[in-house]
């Protein structure tokens, strides 16, 4: 029982830390993606590098991290719950005789939905803070955003605007991401090549480069599939902050509106190039740090027990 509790705590801490490291490493691109997805008037017709220069010119280096405080409050519990619940769901599904591939896919999907449900309001807050620009500020901080949404956008339900699209996106984004990562990881570990090493217990584990490689492939493949739903989610989250937000009243309605007004490339996949630049290193860092943290903490626990 104690060993089981230690494993859950280890997974919780490793998942939270790895997700924070991953999100912070790509925060500037994350903010730019939000500005592009929601067609902010100041950045609507800009390319990636010109927009990054404009942010620096208007808001300085800290402009790249606008909304990152709210993001960190969200991503630690999100990452922690996601990794812990993934392990638990996988155990349950394996006990029900689901095959390995289906177990990984379903476990990842359920884990993503579980984590998202618990932390979604902070994602809405972070989107509002990241969307506003220096000379057109609407919100003063996290508490102000929450108060404004609750009082002017339908109460507590306003904090879950766009949740349906987000929950749907968990299936391809998180589910396929975990499935791809675990599948590539299992393959690499079975090869016992330069991307693996032995831990203190003599078990084969990934090297940092191995974790980065598996995470990069998982991030690129999963986000390509899930990206249109991410655009729909952002439009709905930001509906209360833009003049034409009334058009984004539901998941299907928002999807159709974006498609009819902006098309596929400039609408549903607007900002995808930024997303590749953001997601590939982000997911690579997340899984790599997760593996390293688990290895480090598990070795510490083993040492403490032996003493």
From TrEMBL:
Q: Looking at the keywords, is Nucleotidyltransferase present?
A: no
- Which InterPro entries does the UniProt entry name for this protein? GDC-like, MCP, MCP_dom_sf, MCP_transmembrane
Stated membrane topology is: Multi-pass membrane protein
Repeats (Solcar): which ranges? 6-92, 99-187, 206-296
Please, one GO biological process term?
A: transmembrane transport
Does the record's keyword annotation contain Repeat?
yes
A GO cellular component annotation here is: mitochondrial inner membrane
* Keywords (A to Z) from UniProt: Membrane, Mitochondrion, Mitochondrion inner membrane, Repeat, Transmembrane, Transport
Give the primary localization class. mitochondrion
Q: Which SUPFAM superfamilies match?
A: Mitochondrial carrier
Q: Where in the cell is it found?
A: Mitochondrion inner membrane
Q: Which family does it belong to?
A: Belongs to the mitochondrial carrier (TC 2.A.29) family.
Name assigned to this protein:
Graves disease carrier protein
- What organism is recorded for this protein? Pocillopora damicornis
């Amino acid at each position: 029982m104690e060993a089981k509790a230690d494993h859950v705590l280890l997974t919780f801490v490793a998942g939270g830390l790895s997700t924070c490291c991953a999100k912070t490493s790509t925060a500037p691109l994350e903010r730019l993606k939000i500005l592009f997805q929601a067609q902010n008037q100041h950045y609507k017709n800009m390319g990636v590098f010109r927009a990054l220069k404009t942010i620096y010119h208007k808001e300085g280096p800290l402009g790249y991290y606008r909304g990152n405080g709210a993001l960190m409050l969200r991503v630690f519990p999100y990452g922690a719950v996601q990794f812990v619940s993934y392990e638990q769901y996988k155990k349950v599904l394996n006990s029900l005789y689901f095959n390995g591939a289906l177990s990984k896919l379903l476990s990842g999907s359920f884990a993503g939905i579980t984590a998202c449900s618990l932390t979604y309001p902070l994602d809405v807050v972070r989107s509002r803070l990241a969307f506003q620009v220096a000379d057109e500020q609407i919100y003063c901080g996290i508490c102000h955003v929450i108060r404004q949404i609750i009082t002017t956008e339908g109460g507590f339900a306003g904090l879950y605007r766009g949740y349906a699209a987000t929950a749907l996106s968990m299936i391809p984004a998180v589910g396929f991401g975990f499935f791809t990562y675990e599948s590539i990881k299992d393959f690499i570990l079975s090869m016992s090549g330069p991307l693996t090493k032995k831990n203190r217990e003599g078990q084969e584990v990934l090297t940092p480069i191995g974790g980065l490689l598996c995470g990069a492939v998982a991030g690129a493949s999963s986000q390509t599939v899930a990206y249109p739903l991410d655009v729909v989610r952002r439009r709905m989250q930001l509906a209360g902050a833009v003049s034409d937000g009334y058009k984004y009243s539901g998941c299907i309605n928002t999807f159709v509106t974006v498609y009819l007004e902006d098309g596929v490339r400039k609408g549903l996949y607007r900002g995808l190039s930024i997303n590749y630049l953001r997601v590939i290193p982000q997911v690579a860092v997340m899984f790599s740090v997760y593996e390293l943290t688990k290895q480090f903490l598990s070795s510490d626990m083993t040492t403490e027990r032996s003493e």
